[in-house]
Automatic annotation (TrEMBL):
Biased amino acid composition, Polar residues: 367-378
Keywords from the UniProt entry: Membrane, Signal, Transmembrane, Transmembrane helix
Coiled-coil blocks: none
Residue ranges constituting the LysM domain according to the UniProt record: 116-163, 182-225
Transmembrane found in the keyword field: yes
This protein's name: LysM domain-containing GPI-anchored protein 1 isoform X1
SMART domains according to UniProt: LysM
Stretch list, region Disordered: 355-395
Signal peptide: 1-33
PANTHER family, per the entry: LYSM DOMAIN-CONTAINING GPI-ANCHORED PROTEIN 1, LYSM DOMAIN-CONTAINING GPI-ANCHORED PROTEIN 2
Transmembrane segments: 407-428
Domain of life: Eukaryota
């Protein structure tokens, strides 16, 4: 995974430049929040998730309009039962942590989500929109740059702002297994081992995915967290091509007609008519009396003849179905489903929360034993099943943790503080939008050598 970690939103730190100059020498990562950037070249997109902490009580539909995401898909992504009456108007409590399903595209050579628009209200500032309303998923500098705002103090009420949001695809795989990536904003009490534990992955995997040189994280960093998922094999002309459902959750597709689930027993996507499917086209398999999701099993001397009617994608308003039969050694048990939760009304805080000690990276890829507690004062969904990661994946296949920071180390030995001042300013003047880390550093080195 060729990815890079870049500083973003550093400009406001200019004032403190001299104060932090020495810290920069020791560790550039210290000065600004990092987020993982995935370079991309093609125009395809993928499903991704945002980890969002509600800044206030919000109806499900309000969260939906904040991100321009179907409220039902937010509920199903969090395994919340959608059959509750008037569920879209259910009020989710402040500080609740939920996953928002988004589409991740390739814009100006990097992965991001650019379909979210925000209409400003009185008393909004760029930083209140970034830090509070969007809970740190975007920085005020990124909003300012995405909208070419010259003077952030002059925001018009009712102005529509593009809100660029972080996401990664990494080919829909993690260590060659299907995965969907969650953009996770690091909270003050988080440790990397705590995050790895919470999402059933390893410190090593998180470090590989995020091209981290060391396991230090700080509040405001945005990590790409791989979640094991069920991948679909719909044809490329299907409108839900590439649908991927994280373990332990559901997705709604085909104009709310079909619901697909993933887990808990295996990572085979299972689709069936959605509970509220009303005016939907036929969901019966051709030349059969089986409906979408029906499986029949017939024991014979040769084994178990399993016939199933499965979902094959949504094409031009038509639900594709596939009838298939195969011989299996044993007949399958009844289909298992991820447990559904009632719409949350309170934020369940971890009662036995204690600050985890500093992560001890032992290189073995397993979380430190002390990570048995889930550090989560920001709240989590009651009973949210942690998604499991590829256990024992101690090394990424082809990850090259060559971040801008690691490349910078040789420069730290240049004694002239003046050079460093220029250097740091130069880094800060780069926006996420304009370039990727590697070219930054190359240009930077060229600048230094032509200066001296
Ligand atoms: C991308 O994922 C597919 C399976 O989904 C895999 O066959 C392919 O090798 C992957 N490509 C890369 C570059 O990892
Ligand atoms: C087939 O699927 C439909 C819709 O999900 C369901 O109502 C019905 O009970 C299933 N029939 C069998 C035999 O599984
Ligand atoms: C399995 O059953 C289906 C229908 O029930 C039948 O069409 C198919 O020929 C059977 N396959 C085998 C290998 O017995
Ligand atoms: C969808 O419908 C349009 C026109 O109705 C047609 O041109 C197109 O080929 C159809 N696409 C598929 C995949 O069938
Ligand atoms: C999927 O989640 C369930 C719990 O909901 C867990 O038991 C299982 O191990 C997970 N599977 C994978 C492959 O992560």
């Amino acid at each position: 995974m060729a990815d890079q970690v870049l500083c973003s939103a550093c400009r406001s730190l200019n004032l403190f430049l001299f104060v932090i100059l020495t810290s920069i020498l020791a560790n550039v990562a210290f000065v600004c929040a990092k987020s993982t950037i995935e370079p991309c070249s093609n125009s395809d997109s993928c499903n991704a998730l945002l980890g969002y902490t509600l800044y206030t009580d919000l109806k499900v539909s309000e969260v939906g309009s904040l991100f321009q995401v179907d409220p039902i898909s937010i509920l199903t992504a969090n395994a919340i039962d959608v059959s509750y009456p008037d569920v879209e108007n259910h009020i989710l409590p402040s500080q609740l942590f939920i996953k928002i399903p988004i589409s991740c595209s390739c814009v100006d050579g990097i992965r991001k989500s650019v379909s979210t628009r925000y209409k400003t209200r009185p008393s909004d500032t760029l930083s209140s929109i970034a830090d509070s309303i969007y809970a740190g998923l975007v920085s005020s500098d990124q909003i300012r740059e995405a909208n070419s705002i010259a003077d952030p103090s002059l925001l018009d009420v009712g102005q529509t702002l593009v809100v660029p949001l972080p996401c990664t695809c990494f080919n829909g795989t993690d260590n060659s297994l299907p995965a969907i990536y969650l953009s996770y904003v690091v909270q003050p009490e988080d440790t990397l081992s705590g995050i790895a534990f919470r999402y059933s992955t390893t410190i090593t995997d998180l470090m590989d995915v995020n091209a981290m040189g060391n396991p230090a994280i700080k509040a405001g960093d945005i990590l790409a967290v791989p979640l094991p998922a069920c991948a679909s094999k719909f044809p490329s002309y299907a409108s839900d091509f590439g649908l991927i459902v994280p373990n332990g959750s559901y997705a709604i597709t085909a104009s709310h007609c079909v619901q697909c689930s993933c887990g808990p027993g295996n990572l085979n996507m299972y689709c069936m008519p959605a509970p509220f499917a009303v005016s939907c086209s036929s969901m019966q398999c051709k030349n059969s009396n089986l409906m979408l999701g029906n499986v029949t099993a017939q024991q014979s001397s040769a084994g178990c003849n399993v016939t199933s009617c499965s979902y094959g994608g949504f094409v031009n308003g038509t639900i594709l179905t596939t009838l298939s039969s195969n011989l299996q050694p044993r007949c399958p048990g009844p289909q298992q489903f991820p447990p559904l939760k009632a719409p949350p009304t309170t934020v369940i805080r971890d009662t036995n929360f204690a600050p985890a000690p500093a992560p001890q990276f032992d290189g073995s890829g397993s979380p430190a034993p002390s990570s048995g507690l889930i550090p989560s004062t920001t709240g989590s969904l009651p009973g949210l099943p942690p998604a499991s990661g590829p256990i024992g994946s101690t090394s990424g296949m082809n990850s090259a943790p060559s971040s801008a920071f690691s490349l910078m180390n040789p420069l730290a030995s240049i004694p002239a503080a003046f050079l460093l001042f220029i250097l740091v300013n130069y880094i800060m003047s780069f926006s996420l939008e304009q370039s990727t880390g590697r070219t930054n550093v190359i240009q930077m080195i060229q600048m230094i050598s032509s200066d001296s």
